[in-house]
Specification:
Blueprint (H helix, E strand, L loop, with lengths): L1 E4 L2 E7 L6 E5 L23 E2 L6 E2 L4 E4 L5 E3 L3 E3 L5 E3 L3 E7 L7 E5 L1
Parallel strand pairs: 7-11
Antiparallel strand pairs: 1-2, 2-3, 4-6, 5-10, 6-9, 8-9, 10-11
C-alpha cells in the first residue's frame, strides 16, 4: 500500500495480525551525481604562424602570416586584415626584414 507523506511517496508495509507498521520515505538527492572527470577539456589549436616563408613566391591574396597582435608588420605590397592576418596585395617573392625603430619587430614584404 502506498500513501502520500509530505509530498513524497511512502510505502507502508504491515504484517498480518500486528498493530505496528514500517514506513519507508524516499527523498530528493542533495548532491549532483559526479561525473567521470573534472578535467579533460581543451580547446583546439588556432593554426597561427607563417604560412609562406621568405624566398617563396606568393600570389595576390595569399595569406602570408596568421597572428594575434602585430608580431609581424605589413611592408611593401602586404595588407593587414582586421584579425592582424597579413596577406599579399601583389604577385612576387616574400621577404622579411627588421623594423629600424624596433629591431624586435619583423616586417613582411612582397617584392
Amino acid at each position: 500500500m502506498y500513501s502520500k507523506v509530505f509530498g513524497t511517496l511512502a510505502r507502508t508495509a504491515a504484517t498480518p495480525g500486528s498493530a505496528t507498521s514500517v514506513t519507508t520515505v524516499r527523498t530528493m538527492a542533495t548532491k549532483k551525481a559526479g561525473g567521470s572527470s573534472g578535467n579533460g577539456r581543451d580547446s583546439i589549436g588556432r593554426r597561427l604562424g607563417i604560412k609562406i616563408w621568405p624566398n617563396m613566391s606568393a600570389i595576390a591574396g595569399n595569406i602570408l602570416v596568421r597572428q594575434r597582435g602585430q608580431k609581424f608588420r605589413a611592408g611593401t605590397n602586404v595588407g593587414m586584415g582586421k584579425d592582424h592576418t597579413l596577406f599579399a596585395k601583389a604577385d612576387g617573392v616574400v621577404s622579411m626584414t627588421r623594423l629600424e625603430s624596433n629591431r624586435k619587430r619583423n616586417v613582411v614584404h612582397v617584392l
